[in-house]
Amino acid sequence: MRKLFLSLLAIISFQFLSAQQNLLTKFPKGSTPGEVGKRLAYHFVDGRHELYAGQYIHYAEVCTWNGALDYAVKTKDQKLIRLLQDKFEPFFTREKALLPPMNHVDYNMFGSVALKLYQITKDVRYKEMGLAYADAQWELPRNAKPDEKAWADKGYSWQTRLWIDDMYMITVVQNEAYKVTGDPKYIDRAAKEMVLYLDKLQRPNGLFYHAPDVPYYWARGAGWMAVGMPNLLRDLPKDHKDRPRIMEGYLTMMKSLKEHQRPDGMWSQLIDEADFWPETSGTAMFTYAFIIGIQQGWLDAAEYAPAVQKAWTAMVSHIDERNNVTEVCVGTGKKNDKQYYHDRPRNAGDLHGQAPYLWCAAALLGK
Fold first, then answer.
1. Which one of 173, 313, 316, 336 is CB 3.0 to 4.6 Å from 31, fit for a cystine?
2. What's the pLDDT score for residue 14?
3. Which segments are annotated as binding site for substrate?
């Protein structure tokens, strides 16, 4: 009788887990990750470059490129892969002047898209370009400022500035370099930086202020950390010395985010301010972090899969007829003024929002 009971319990548990996992795969027609990802990826291909002051490729475009490539690979869409290659090809010739200089964390992350293209095509030009950007983050320039030299002397990137954005900008290019070369120095760099940022910036509740002197939990700012941690953990060796600390930071943040999800499935422009407007880029970043955690077995599917289902459904409702994600907060510098965050303009089609939607679409298509 006891064996029969245990067998029935195992069957019930399996069926319950399967039902929760289905929440990551069962979506109504028109809202499936495949359909949404295709709409946004092809929209990106047709779009113009987004530039810093008319000069260099903006990091938000790189983030979107990464998402479109991930989606194309997951769906084996060879046409899309070819179009994304064609969009990049002019950087080797007539658009070479648009390549960001290798002197700032937001610029150097450009290398990540070149390294992703190398993994798909094995064209060595992408590898050489991408590794140059990755290595430059740790190559101290001759005209380095004293604080930059101080970071380098401690083994950190000279581009360290303790802004949470960096935990996508630094880790994404170092992680892609690790995947391309297998050289542990790249993953070690990323992990060392992540531990520094966690120790310096994470609050006891698991969230992050926009800056140490700005005590507000801005959604997209926190989103960079929410995405950077699971992306890094996914490739970090299981026995890596920094893994426990990063996993602790990730799980603590996820628990807090789950508690702050709005009834409509979104997250607010300021995470803990329920009367602030629902913001799409931060919502998509948090949703992505949940998806990866569930798929990797770090998060309990029974608890987090319904949150993903609710968030994705809400997210899709914020895509307009032109395939633009709406309610995206514009680029936002820090300011110690709550009303400032409430009043930030919102753009439709801003690549800060298009990018994490594509990350989610690709992730929802499976490991």
1. 316
2. 46
3. 165
- Whole-number pLDDT of residue 25: 82
φ/ψ region of 107 (left if φ > 0, alpha if ψ in -120 to 50, else beta) reads alpha
C-alpha closest to that of 179 among 237, 266, 241: 237
Residues placed in the known binding site: 165
CA atoms within 13 A on the CB side of 22: 8
Provide CATH code, domain 30-364.
1.50.10.10
Residues 341 and 338: their CA atoms lie apart, in Å, by: 6
Tokens standing for residue 315: 């997210």
Q: What is the CA 266 to chain-centroid distance, rounded? A: 17
Mean pLDDT of 83-91: 98
- The secondary structure of residue 329, as a DSSP letter, is E
Question: How far apart (Å, rounded) are the C-alpha atoms in residues 327 and 277?
Answer: 9
Cβ atoms of residues 178 and 184 within 8 Å:
yes
For 52-59, the CB contacts below 8 A with 24+ separation are 52/100, 55/98, 56/98, 56/99, 56/100, 56/101, 56/107, 57/98, 57/99, 57/100, 57/110, 58/351, 59/106, 59/107, 59/109, 59/110, 59/169
**CA 159, CA 62: separation in Å to the nearest integer?**
18
Does the global pTM surpass 0.85? yes
Amino acid at 15: Q
Q: How confident is the model at residue 12 (pLDDT cuts 50, 70, 90)?
A: very low
Q: Which residues of 93-129 are buried (b: 16+ CB within 10 A; e: fewer)?
A: eeeeebbbebebbbbbbbbbbbbbbbeeeeeeebbeb
